[in-house]
C-alpha cells in the first residue's frame, strides 16, 4: 500500500493534519542572520560566506514553498471563516442531539433492567 504522507513532494495532494505541516523555519533564519552578522577581513572568506548565505536563502524559499503547498492541502482551507463557523455550529448541534439520544437509550436500558 502506498504512503501518501511524503511532505517533500509538493505535488502530493493527499490530506494533511495541522501537526504534519512543516513550518520549522527558525533554524534556517538563524543561520542566515549569523552569516550576515559575521565580519570577515579576507575577501575570499566574504565571497564564500556570501555564497553560503545565498544557498541558505534559497533553502528557506524552498521550505516556504513546501509549507504553502502543504497548507493548501489542509482539510477545510477552502472555506472562509463564516462557512467554517456555520459548519462548526452544525457539527455541535449534531453532537448535542447524539448525546441526548445516547442518554435516552441509557435511561431506557437502565429502566428495563430494573424490572427484570
From TrEMBL:
One of its GO terms (biological process) is regulation of transcription by RNA polymerase II. InterPro entries: Med7/Med21-like, Med9, MED9_metazoa. One of its GO terms (molecular function) is transcription coregulator activity. Its main location: nucleus. Transmembrane segments: none annotated. The keyword Coiled coil applies. The keyword Metal-binding does not apply. It comes from the Eukaryota. GO terms for cellular component: mediator complex. It is found in: Nucleus. Keywords: Activator, Coiled coil, Nucleus, Transcription, Transcription regulation. Belongs to the Mediator complex subunit 9 family. Component of the Mediator complex, a coactivator involved in the regulated transcription of nearly all RNA polymerase II-dependent genes. Mediator functions as a bridge to convey information from gene-specific regulatory proteins to the basal RNA polymerase II transcription machinery. Mediator is recruited to promoters by direct interactions with regulatory proteins and serves as a scaffold for the assembly of a functional preinitiation complex with RNA polymerase II and the general transcription factors. Component of the Mediator complex. This is Mediator of RNA polymerase II transcription subunit 9.
Amino acid at each position: 500500500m502506498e504512503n501518501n504522507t511524503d511532505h517533500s513532494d509538493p505535488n502530493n495532494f493527499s490530506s494533511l493534519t495541522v501537526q504534519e505541516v512543516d513550518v520549522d523555519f527558525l533554524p534556517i533564519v538563524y543561520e542566515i542572520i549569523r552569516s550576515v552578522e559575521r565580519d570577515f577581513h579576507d575577501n575570499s572568506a566574504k565571497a564564500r560566506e556570501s555564497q553560503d548565505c545565498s544557498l541558505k536563502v534559497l533553502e528557506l524559499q524552498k521550505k516556504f514553498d513546501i509549507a504553502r503547498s502543504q497548507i493548501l492541502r489542509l482539510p477545510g482551507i477552502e472555506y472562509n471563516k463564516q462557512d467554517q463557523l456555520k459548519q462548526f455550529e452544525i457539527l455541535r448541534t449534531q453532537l448535542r442531539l447524539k448525546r441526548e439520544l445516547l442518554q435516552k437509550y441509557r435511561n431506557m436500558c437502565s429502566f428495563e433492567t430494573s424490572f427484570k
